[in-house]
Design goal:
The protein is of the alpha+beta class. About 25% of the residues lie in helices and about 30% in strands. It holds the Pfam family Ham1p_like.
Length: about 350
Amino acid sequence: MSLNEIDWDTVDEVEWGADDEIDWKDVEIKEDILVELRNDPQPSFFVRKFAVVWWRNGFYKAGKVDGTVRVTPTQFLFLDTKGKVRLSVENDMIESFDLHLHEAKFPIYYNEIITKNAYSYQITTGVNEAQSTQNHEDLKNAIFGHSDKPESDVMELKVVTSNDGKIKEFKQAFEKTSVFPTKVSVPYPEVQASSLEEVVDFGLDNLKDKIQPPFIIDDAGVFVDGLEGFPGVYSRYVYDTIGLQGILKQMENLENRQGSFKCVLGLLLENGDKHKFVGECKGTIINEMRGDNGFGYDPIFIPEGHDMTFAELPPEAKNEISHRGRAMQKLIKFISEKGL
């Protein structure tokens, strides 16, 4: 069956059955994870199940299934929820890795892998164009070894994030140091906790066996005084669920719009030591969105002592006063004094 004969609308509706009594294997080689994408009920990740198509003995198997897409230094893997390998392709056997659009009532973007021995595999990794494109680029760069790498005399610091805006801020902050931040897209569950510090501690513990230290994770939130500190640790959930327009609507007629941005960076070192660095920036939540820079809540937050939002400020100016910028300044001081 050719690629053109695949009905992607059907693929996206069909559940996997008994898997034809295939004995799915465990991951045989434990390697550092370069990129990992997964289905997750949290809004911070895409919730659509992976639509997967591949060929086995001349027949194709198609369906949707919960699982994880992972790229290591040597392999492209698709794992089911039990951690069993449904698909494994050696990176050096991949001839091409391209993103295609299937036009339908609900457009589907899918990645097509063509191997050097003419096998073909297709898999979706996003619910819309923006997410599919970003995930595709992250996967492709990892497969072909095009990820940014530091020079040999520069220390690499892995930053666990899928947010390009965030990694850009890290690179700007470390620009005049001997540390080179590199993005690692490995998701981890964000536990519901009472503080950002607890969320970061949980994340470091969750990732310590998946990523070779040293690496950094962070959690941030906006704490509105008139809402008794809400959304706080739930900032990402609220942003993903109702967006900035929804947040502004919830704050209509709120008199006390003072608040603060807070960021906690968590650093895990090779010896297992954990360190946290906290940054805070006080300011005001305005009643409209202004500016095109930054990300997240930046368009509605004016830092204390300024008349422009984070999204209106030049990136360099924002990084000097922002919550994350202040936390990164403490991190840079720590590394300059004690190293990685």
